[in-house]
């Protein structure tokens, strides 16, 4: 090897993780003009960081179907660190029947995060969450007014064009390596606690009809429920909070199949995955599951990151194809 040339360590080719039969391979197409080229909509968004109490990872990616047909990514998310160490997570899934729901999802996540930043109290035991949803719904009405050139806000037109689901979570430290999460939702997005290898559903996603068939009808913002009751869950050292859209929730199901095994392995390691490892797992290929995917994972802070220039010990060989 010529002097002064650094050695390349690791594979430059990373195969997609395949679970069962794969989805067709698709080269992402440009966004179709009917969905408006502005505001700019990236195919994939990746974020993640740690504060003194928590580690978070988040990915939102366009599904295979939208990559094929030119529709934009209709999901969005926000992760925000508050000065007191609490973390805000907001996840939105634009309703597919609403043509501009990608704009609705982005509007909702930004407004909800801004509202929580400005209005969140330290004591959440008796906090009123309903104004959060009302404020976000009104932001959608105003966005639709500007987008469509209406004389006044119109909730019906806003729902037709911008409807979106929403999950908001506030995670606060409660002790050494323990945290408490407060979650509310509007629509069919999902949340779970992954604890000791088991997925405990915190928010119900798609509901089954009396016939046993899952309904695809979604009621989200700007419709506001009459009342909002938060789900509160305490997390220990080895627990992981997952908040996702149905692009993750549908293939995950009860967590007993291949997708559950994948996330159980990737998220249950002694230290959280890197941003790229996390995004690689979310990008798994499985036949018929081609919806947009958004997943945010939250861990109580486990260990300090390795110092720059040090090499971590090799991980054991994975049993999941594509993670070797």
From TrEMBL:
Which InterPro entries does the entry link to?
A: PPM-type-like_dom_sf, PPM-type_phosphatase-like_dom
Q: Which domain of life is it from?
A: Bacteria
Q: Which residues belong to any copy of the PPM-type phosphatase domain?
A: 62-266
Which parts of this chain are annotated as the region Disordered? 301-324
Which Pfam families does the record cross-reference, listed alphabetically? PP2C_2
Q: What's the protein name?
A: PPM-type phosphatase domain-containing protein
Per the UniProt record, the source organism is Mycobacterium florentinum
Source lineage: Bacteria, Bacillati, Actinomycetota, Actinomycetes, Mycobacteriales
